[in-house]
Specification:
Blueprint: H1 3-7, E1 9-12, H2 18-33, H3 39-44, H4 47-59, E2 66-72, E3 75-84, E4 92-100, H5 109-123, E5 128-134, H6 138-146, E6 150-151, E7 155-159, E8 162-171, H7 175-178
């Protein structure tokens, strides 16, 4: 086994992980989105508010929803969550969030989370997978393109502080990720 496999574990998150997920979420947003989203929004993000949201969603997940966390010996350093796609295309799953703390990036954890989520959704019968990111989040865009995601045209979506431009990445055959 390589060092990455030994030092990190991916597991299904439960309600007891809500606080750690919220801490990871807020920190990852602040690390990743400075300059892309208004600093005032990022500074107002609340760990307790996000912890309550995580707890609710983990206590009563929707049909086919999943949340996976990745942790090292010090705790959770990243997570991914998703379910059926917002577009409601039959057989299409969507990863709604995928974040890895800056200090834990470039260790293959984002790829492992994406593939693990794809496996969960494939096991549930999904045939395709999508994920969206901000148009100007170039590191995320390169990451999804490296993994074979096909970019759609940018579109305007409601987001923090107003409209944002998003790009979706699609894997028309989820099997390409889970081989």
């Amino acid at each position: 086994m390589d060092q990455d496999t030994i030092s990190h574990v991916i597991f299904p998150a439960g309600p007891g992980d809500a606080l750690a997920l919220a801490e990871t979420h807020v920190a990852a947003w602040r690390e990743s989105y400075r300059g892309l989203i208004a600093d005032s929004y990022l500074d107002r993000m609340s760990v307790p508010v996000h912890a309550r949201r995580f707890e609710r969603s983990l206590i009563q997940p929707g049909p086919h929803d999943a949340t996976l966390a990745v942790a090292d010996r010090d705790g959770i350093v990243g997570y991914a969550s998703g379910g059926p796609s917002r577009s409601r295309r039959p057989g299409e799953a969507e990863i709604h969030t995928l974040y890895v703390r800056l200090a834990a990036q470039r260790q293959g954890l984002g790829e492992r989370l994406l593939i693990a989520m794809a496996r969960v959704f494939a096991d549930q019968g999904a045939r395709s997978l999508m994920i969206s990111t901000l148009r100007d989040n170039l590191p995320a865009r390169r990451f999804y393109e490296h993994l074979g995601g096909e970019a759609t045209a940018p579109r305007r979506e409601p987001g923090p502080g107003g409209l944002v431009h998003e790009v979706s990445y699609l894997w028309p055959d989820i099997g390409a990720l889970v081989q």
